[in-house]
Every structure is written in C-alpha cells, then in structure tokens.
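Form 7-S
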Amino acid sequence: MRRLAPVILSCATLLLTAPSLAEDGLTDGIKEKAKPLLYALSLLGTPYKFGGTNPEKGLDCSGFVRQVYKQSAEVSLPHNAKAMSQAGETVNKDELKPGDLVFFNTLKKPFSHVGIYAGEGKFVHASSRGEKEVTISSMNDSYWAKRFSGARRLPAAE
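Output:
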C-alpha cells in the first residue's frame, strides 16, 4: 500500500481540484459526485477475482464498479461490463470527468472491461493483468489506448 500512497494523493488532488468540482465550490465537505471516485480509490490493492463482488474476497472489473456505485451513490448497476455500457449517457473521450465509466475491448469484443475515470488520462479498475488487483492505469498506455471502446456518465457522476 505504501507504493500506492503517491498515486492516491495525486488522484485525490486531481479530483478535488477538477474544474467540474471547483466551479461549483466545495461546501459542506466533498460533493456527492466526488464520492464514487474517492470510494474507488479506497479499494486500491483489493485482489482481483473473476466474478468477484465482495471487496473482502476479491472483485472483477464490473463487480468493482458495481460495488463503488452501490456503496457511494446508491446506484444499482448490472454485473456485466457490456450491460453497464448501456447505462447513463455517452461521453466523448475528450470530455471525460472523474467518475465517468470507461470501457475497453479486452476479450476481442467491445465493452468487455470497465473502470472509473480518475482524471488526467488515468482510470481505476480491477485488473486481471499483471498486478491482479484494483489499480490505477493510464488510458494512454498502448495496451489501453488501442482497446478503448467508449465512456458513459451516470446520473450520480454529473
């Protein structure tokens, strides 16, 4: 966890200084739209588990996103990245805001992986690659850049 501290601090700073939040001002603590990303960041290091829906036992990508939005924004999402890609409104890549869902083609089909946009080209997700845990990745990394399928904004993230 110590190696993630600078990344967590960086993402929290991005979130709290993002223009979409700053223009509204932060009153009475963190605004509702910041809660999903902050909760997502609290799950960094949670083990990846295929089909996982419980942070204590492990999460897969859609289980992670579903858990985040259920616990932080009382939004119910399906446990399937493809089905999640139908929720909310489509967002262009150049208009992403922290909390938006980002989708990737990782199984030779669009919308087979999902994560939560954290700002500055980074996203939080339950990765089955490499570290096999909830982690932060750059959408600009060649692996993710060529697999980007689209993005959605949920009502709780607006």
